[in-house]
Specification:
With 479 residues, this protein is mainly α. The chain has one domain: Up-down Bundle (Amino acid/polyamine transporter I), CATH 1.20.1740. 67% of the residues lie in helices and 0% in strands. The longest helix has 37 residues. The protein is globular, with a radius of gyration of 22 Å.
């Protein structure tokens, strides 16, 4: 049996950056103007980096499949391990609605009907069609193999590079526009205006760029000398991502007139850049189509990923046998269909909330809050495991001796996570005062209900829920 090939330092940097390279979050950065530099530094170094480093230690100590659920199960209890896996599944109900909403907006530009990008009913219909479409395709074909890596290259990397290049050329040609989000610069613009608490909510949307940062830690065991190379890779990746996002965000802030930026419409800055630089409008249609392909590929990958993790939790006896059903292709059909139905229901927000911008931001924030709850459990588990299993082998360890560095990193992450949750509950300035109460109630209730459902299911779980590995379905699939 051949020796597994180790990742190089540069290879791991590339993989880590690939997880978070996206053009979709650029408008959320851009709307904050010069303050985005402050927000990005907080998101990258107080949020993403501590969580990535803690996750590296945990993933190398517990390399078995399951990730956060395994860490929290060992650090706290099986109950909280289940809550962790549950929240990582249900957050996609909101996250995928947010991602799918961009399909309708992009489609409007692909077919030269940009007015459709602000039509709530059109966005709602396209969310349903696109998500159910990729769901049904995944039931029939292995879409991850069909799409491969080309979807990310076409739909993410190329459009991101084009956006940065066009933005820099636009800035060189036109300078800083006085009527833009960057115009009339004052030193005070570099830090948030704490008198306008609603503006702080955008931090939640910016932090969403790094949601899922723990995923890259699965590669920590696959790199030579992880103790030295993993932190170098993570720190380098976070710095590069922060720089690229800030360049993209600032150039978009400079191009879009103040008050006119559309959070869910990444095509908007491309249109402005191309028109100003004399580039044919068909380029915008092509770029919109490329991003649209990338979004559909991303949706496709998420259809099966979280559900395959959840069915393992179901097999352990945490959910009724109904959830353990699989198709002949081993697809967890119950989870796949439930998530499609719930995502359809969540997408009704695009009809209830008249403004597409507001609906997009609200759903992004809900996803971030649910992720934050998971990160709180991970941070507490990382500390507890140092005392619970002090002699456990940790190929990557925060600090050579003692627990001081782990305490420092964990506390820093907990402070940033709790702060993110607090600002997420503050009604964003994009909303009307009449919507403030409804917004707060929605975010609090959505979070509490999602956690409560997991705790209730676990409380009433039954021994007979545990999977019998000699069941007829298993024998049939193995034959």
């Amino acid at each position: 049996m051949g020796k597994t090939k180790k990742l190089t330092l540069f290879g791991l940097i590339g993989i880590t950056m690939a997880f978070f390279g996206t053009v979709r979050s650029v408008p959320t950065l851009a709307i904050t103007g010069w303050t985005q530099i402050f927000y990005m530094v907080i998101a990258a170094f107080a949020f993403a980096l501590p969580i990535a480093l803690m996750s590296a230690e945990l993933s190398t100590a517990y390399p078995e499949e399951g990730g956060p659920q395994v860490w929290v199960k060992n650090g706290l209890s099986e109950k909280w391990g289940f809550v962790t896996s549950w929240l990582l599944w249900v957050q996609m109900f909101f996250g995928m609605v947010m991602v799918a909403s961009t399909v309708g907006i992009l489609l409007g530009y692909v077919i030269n009907k940009p007015d459709l990008s602000s039509n709530n009913y059109f966005i709602f219909a396209v969310i349903l069609i696109s998500y159910w479409g990729v769901t049904l395709l995944n039931l029939k074909f292995d879409m991850v193999k069909v799409a491969g890596n080309w979807g990310a290259v076409i739909g993410v990397y190329i459009p991101f590079v084009i956006l940065v290049v066009l933005g820099v050329i636009y800035l060189i040609k036109n300078g800083i526009q006085s009527n833009s989000y960057l115009g009339g610069f004052k030193t005070s613009d570099l830090v948030p205006n704490f008198k306008d608490l609603g503006s702080l909510t955008y931090l939640s949307g910016i932090i969403f760029i790094f949601a899922g940062v723990e995923i890259s830690s699965v590669h920590a065991n696959n790199i030579d000398n992880p103790k030295r190379n993993y932190p170098i890779a993570v720190i380098t990746s976070v710095i590069l991502l922060a720089i690229f996002n800030i360049i993209a965000g600032l150039t978009v802030s400079n191009a879009v007139p103040k008050g006119k930026l559309e959070l869910a419409n990444i095509t908007q800055p491309y249109m402005i850049f191309c028109k100003n630089l004399g580039i044919p409008s068909i380029v915008v249609n092509i770029i919109s189509l490329m991003i649209l392909i990338g979004v559909l590929v991303q949706l496709s990958a998420w259809v099966l990923g979280p559900s395959k993790s959840m069915i393992k939790v179901a097999d352990e006896g945490n959910l009724p046998k109904f959830f353990q059903k699989r198709t002949e292709k081993d697809i967890p059909i119950t989870f796949v269909m439930i998530q499609a139905i719930v995502i359809s229901l969540v997408s009704i927000l695009y009809i209830v909330v008249p403004d597409v911008n507001s609906a997009f931001l609200i759903i992004t924030i809900t996803t971030t809050i649910l992720y934050c709850v998971v990160y709180i459990l991970i941070a507490i588990s990382a500390i507890r495991l140092r005392y619970k299993m002090p002699d456990f082998d940790r190929p990557f360890r925060l600090g050579s001796k003692g627990n001081g560095l782990m305490w420092t990193v964990s506390i820093l992450s907990l402070i940033s996570i709790v702060f993110t949750i607090i600002v997420s509950i503050i009604p964003p300035s994009i909303l009307k005062p009449s919507q403030y109460t409804g917004y707060v109630i929605y975010q609090v209730v959505a979070t509490i209900v999602m956690i409560a459902i997991a705790l209730i299911i676990y409380k009433f779980k039954k021994p007979e829920w545990k999977k019998d590995n000699n069941s007829p379905d298993d024998i049939k699939r193995s034959s």
